[in-house]
Amino acid sequence: MGVETMNADERTSDWYEQDSLWEGTAQIIFSREALENAPQQVAQVLSLADLEPPLRVLDMPCGVGRHTLEFVRLGCAVTGVDRTAFYLKEARATVQAAEGEVEWIEADMRAFQQPGAFDLAINLFTSFGYFEDRNDDLKVLDNFYTSLRPGGVLVMDMMGKEIVARIFIPRDWDTLDDGTLLLRERSIHQDWTWIENCWILITNGNQRKFALAHRLYGASDLKNILVQAGFTGIRIYGSLSGTPYDQTAQRLVAVAHKSESAG
Ligand SMILES: C[S@@+](CC[C@H](N)C(=O)[O-])C[C@H]1O[C@@H](n2cnc3c(N)ncnc32)[C@H](O)[C@@H]1O
After folding, report:
1. Does the C-beta of 61 come closer than 6 Å to ligand 1?
2. Does the global pTM surpass 0.90?
3. Per-residue pLDDT tens for 164-217?
4. Domains, the chain, ordered by start
5. CA–CA separation, 249 vs 234, rounded Å?
6. What is the spatial distance between Cα 119 and Cα 202, in angstroms, rounded to a whole number?
7. Would the CB of 112 count as within 6 Å of ligand 1?
8. Ligand 1 atom closest to Cα of 59?
9. Using CB atoms within 10 A as the burial measure, which of 41, 83, 137, 227 is most buried?
10. For residues 143 and 256, what is the distance between their CA atoms, to the nearest angstrom?
11. Å from CA of 127 to ligand 1 middle
């Protein structure tokens, strides 16, 4: 079976604004494995941040609330922010079933802030770098910084540039639980600062195609933009379990602090 190559017209700069994309890719992004991993990831985030519940937590973007749910179970007060109403609806139902209290906010991460309201903020699963303009990424970090109390901690987790360079595969395929065939194509652009992904899902002969893209942050790029946003005490890891960001790194993880003396 031939795989069509994504052409320039299909590379949308505002791909993340498309509800159909988030609805159509939900089964891939929030796979059984991703949902099952959430409790362990929350424990790892708490360990990296050196914080203990109860806490006020900002989960942005929260998707279907897999981490939010775990923080609620641990007795935290959580605010989940996401642009995708469809995901927030699912998240609300899941957490209601767990009898938790959460504030759900449908908002763009470039716009949401609640000054000094949180002890911990999380941005997990490559939820950063979606915007064509780097200043928009900086806005997101400004919002996290403003929303943390002095002494508060931000934990970020994404696919780092060095890892992509090490494991790069232009095309691969997979079969999902329901038999859907997933074909993935990747390409690097703008001097290794941008990656474009084309996902083709084939279910019972029906083909759906989605384009996702994001800025590729290396460890030093991420440190620099966090410093620019005002963060201090920045530590970089190669996984949420705190392994080094070296040739074995699986993820690019940053732990960044808002200084106790910040106004
Ligand atoms: C890869 S998912 C990760 C979600 C969640 N952090 C997790 O680990 O399950 C990325 C999320 O970003 C959200 N998103 C995309 N663009 C956004 C924006 N501009 N503002 C807020 N949320 C956005 C999507 O709706 C989606 O839920």
Report:
1. yes
2. yes
3. 999 999 999 999 999 999 999 999 999 999 999 999 999 999 999 999 999 999
4. 27-159+217-257 (3.40.50.150)
5. 17
6. 43
7. no
8. 6
9. 137
10. 14
11. 5
